[in-house]
């Protein structure tokens, strides 16, 4: 407060002036200027300050050279002081001192000029002038008041120690001054400001006890304010209550306000409201009192009463030109009551009551009616954002946020607005934008709140950045309250599960919900089941089926609604299915299908049940269910899975036609996960049915269009095999090279190398074939194709005319695997012995084959070797029987070996000189077989038979036929020689192809 100007002090110089003044002159010769001067003095003496000031000013204007001008100027300053026109007065006092530095009113003018600077709040100017007065008139009685003024200035400037010294000096040096109580009050305030509350309290108590003192009321009020600032609210109430309420007493009215505030601090809002109501019609404090009535109702959640009180305060503020600023009360007093603040609280009460539309209307009205500098405008803007958030009006919220940030970029409420924007974005699943809004808080340097960590965790989780979400969520747990802690723990459990940390997920979930059967807050009843379901889904996706099953059972234990129960049962069924517990899976699915499942989930459950029944072995039931899903689920993501499963069941049921039809539906539909598998299975089914062209087309489709498939390399082998079967060795080589260059080819390297060896054999590239077979043996020693590769390598060596072939075949025989490979090796050994004319060895090996391998597919080749061995021993009849077995063999007929056998039968007759039978046998070779070398040799030998039988004409005809039909053969050369020379005897003969090495 200001130390007040006291009239009795101001009258001191006035009395002095009147004592010096003479009476007005009279008579005809009176001075008109002097008359005006005396008239002004008369008005001054009668305290007619306005009139006196006007007359003195007029006198100075009309008589600038009058001898009394300087005195008149001093009196004018005094009159202006009495009207609180301090700055004008200060100028006249300064002019007086400038004109009369040693004038009779010098002391008074210097004092008044200093006082005017003080009272017009020119702090530095006043301090300088007051210090000058103290230095000049330190012992003057006015110096006591000057010291008090200086103390007040120091107090205002926050220099409590200096103020204390000045007030003490005034009390010490001027103990009888009329302003002693002012100094004591100032000293008490300085002590309080300096933290010496105990001594300040004593001064306040002493002054308050002086009931006749004009400062007793203020001291009593300040005593209550001191207690209030020290949080001694009971003592403050007692002190404030000591001032009996009197509307005309400003300190008593302010004490009522202080008493109400102290009651508010104690939480006694009903008592406080009664106190505030007692002064709600006070001229100066009524608006603020109504404001506090509203706050008391608001504290008691009496939203309607609160809103009414605030709006009543608005009406009073609109209808009265009152100063709503409160009296000084010490620390903790709220800011000045404004229209914006009143509308804010009225609207916020409606917001708390859930009347969002009315709240928004009042917030808008507050924005319209508040002054441009109203300190509550940013609060209203923030509250509007909150209201729109609760209304889920996200577009309106974003507009309001942008408006707020543009109008209040430096408001302390910017972080709160950004947090609400982040919450709105999270509710809209705009997680990246929410994270950006939260990051902006850090950029603004806003103090981090615990809730920011929770929101950031939610934003990361929504973006599936589960690992990033864990750190802020764990940090949030340190400060979270119980309800939000459970929410954070639940979200943390989900994030840990999504990161594969299932032990942590289980621990966090138990920490959140163990032992809690009832929710703490509305809307929390679903949290345990929802969190358990999400953890279960993460575990199921990660293949942690037991963990997933445990959490699905937690969902079911929480008695969820039918929809969630259905999802949990289907999830549990998946876990049991993956764990091969098909009976439990079927029970869960049966229970789920009794519930009103959503269409998509129902299809999934039926599909899984069909697959489960197939696993159990109930194929007919599985077939029925899966067919129904195929029929009903065409637009669903489960259709292709259902078709695939049904096709597999059809195969198991021995219904290839149904399986083919189903696989073709997948193969011809839009690509899906089972397209490649369907193509592969379809191709093999068609191949098994002998539909080689269709099968080849499906293998080729898979090979060309599904390179990333697990079936691709296998399909490529089938394509290469098809090329080999069509003798397209070049195309087969290209496909095999493609497979070898691929990653998938490495997984079936043995099969690729084996088929490559077969292709090289077919192309008669013996060395390449040998390389491939030997590579298979070196790089794939555990392959089931090792035996076949050993035979293939030996076969390549054999065809390359390498004598080492015999030892290779012998090693295969010694391995004694007892399979067709052993039989084939014995055959080759027998053939090699026969070629070397080792007939006993050849016969031994060939005879062993017939005994050990009665169903040998190459028995016709064995019989041919046996025939050769018998013929070599001149056992021609037995030889012909062996040769005839070759010709009659289903596997050997029409083969080159059969042609050779027929030729060798004719040879036996020729050897016995039975030329008629020999001729007949030779001609059968030429007529029934299609092997030019053998046919030419047979015709040549038939000609010899005719020649030896004395039929030279027919012989020459046959020789000519050899030349004409088989000109490039070995037999053609001999036939030409016989025709040209005419001297060749029938016994001259070309080597028979049938007796050539067996290849």
CATH level-four homologous superfamily name of the domain at 848-995: Tetratricopeptide repeat domain
CATH architecture of the domain at 848-995: Alpha Horseshoe
Number of strands: 0
CATH fold assignment of the domain at 848-995:
Serine Threonine Protein Phosphatase 5, Tetratricopeptide repeat
What features would you highlight for this structure?
single chain; 999 residues; disordered N terminus; 73% helix; 0% strand
Describe the structure.
With 999 residues, the chain is an all-alpha fold. It has a domain at 848-995: Serine Threonine Protein Phosphatase 5, Tetratricopeptide repeat. 73% of the residues lie in helices and 0% in strands. The chain is rod-shaped, with a radius of gyration of 60 Å. It starts with 6 loop residues before the first helix and ends in an 18-residue tail after the last helix.
Task: Give a brief outline of the structure.
This protein has 999 residues and is mostly helical. It contains 53 helices and no strands.
SSE map:
Blueprint lengths: L6 H14 L11 H14 L3 H14 L6 H14 L3 H14 L6 H14 L3 H14 L5 H15 L3 H14 L6 H14 L3 H13 L6 H14 L3 H9 L8 H16 L3 H10 L7 H14 L3 H17 L19 H14 L3 H14 L7 H14 L3 H14 L6 H14 L3 H13 L6 H13 L3 H11 L5 H17 L3 H12 L13 H15 L3 H13 L4 H17 L3 H11 L6 H18 L2 H14 L6 H14 L3 H13 L6 H14 L3 H14 L6 H14 L3 H12 L2 H5 L1 H14 L3 H14 L6 H14 L5 H11 L4 H16 L3 H14 L6 H14 L3 H13 L7 H16 L3 H14 L3 H17 L3 H14 L4 H12 L18
Helix pairs in contact: 2-3, 3-4, 4-5, 5-6, 6-7, 6-8, 7-8, 8-9, 8-10, 9-10, 10-11, 11-12, 12-13, 12-14, 13-14, 14-15, 15-16, 16-17, 16-18, 17-18, 18-19, 18-20, 19-20, 20-21, 20-22, 21-22, 22-23, 22-24, 23-24, 24-25, 25-26, 26-27, 26-28, 27-28, 28-29, 28-30, 29-30, 30-31, 30-32, 31-32, ...
